[in-house]
Amino acid sequence: MALTSTPQTPFGRVLTAMVTPFTADGDLDLDGAQRLAAQLVDAGNDGLVVNGTTGESPTTSDAEKADLVRAVLEAVGDRAHVVAGVGTNDTRHSIELARSAEAVGAHGLLAVTPYYNKPPQEGLLHHFTALADATGLPVMLYDIPGRSGVPISTETLVRLAEHPRIVANKDAKGDLGRSGWAIARSGLAWYSGDDMLNLPLLSIGAVGFVSVVGHVVTPELRAMLDAHLAGDVQKALEIHQRLLPVFTGMFRTQGVMTTKAALALQGRPSGPLRLPMVGLSEEETAQLKIDLAAGGVELAPQTS
Length: 304
Description:
The chain is of the alpha/beta class and 304 residues long. Helices cover 46% and strands 12% of the residues.
């Protein structure tokens, strides 16, 4: 199956922001990454985001990032959009990562708002524009002020949307009012970046998701999306409500930590975390099992 996209859905509709599997001694587990990527596409993902923050990108080297994109592309071929996270708080470094991702064959780029240094909106405009100018790849912005410290304002989103390669936004702003205005005014393809708000964002114009819980419930997310697109609002709501324990459980603490724990509970590739991320405590793992079970997620027999 070849990649399919439209101006309205440039990266497909259901994407998972993939964790980066590591070996027991903390090295990159490229075999595990390929197996996990294939599993996620088989489950119904149109795309995978690699080297995002869910992929522990702050703790992987530039060489590891390139190796990971290359490995995932080998695993899924043209069955899914492989979007490379290239966001940093250094525009020159982000450009280097973008060019490297393009060179190894990535289909698109995800660029998070520069974090910690809190640039003004004019700085954001120049940062994202320089990044989009650096390659021929389509760019998805990533607006997550709770992590970056700075939101992308609606006016800035409208101005950025004028760039021919800035085509989408991953929205983790948590403000449906602002999102509604930005969707209406910018014309960007809008992707939910906050799983608890997947359905509400669909209702105001989002086209799909870049999900963390997609690691364990992609078929359910796909069914919810399909129901909504078909006009079956009641069915979409029922699926959303069934998934509430999963949404809650996967974000009781840091999402990378819970996702790797959930994958381990299913016997799937994950591995340890790199500091400063740490594994869940016994109590946190026990609660995660309860949350996943309440949402209908099956665990491996030895962990049930």
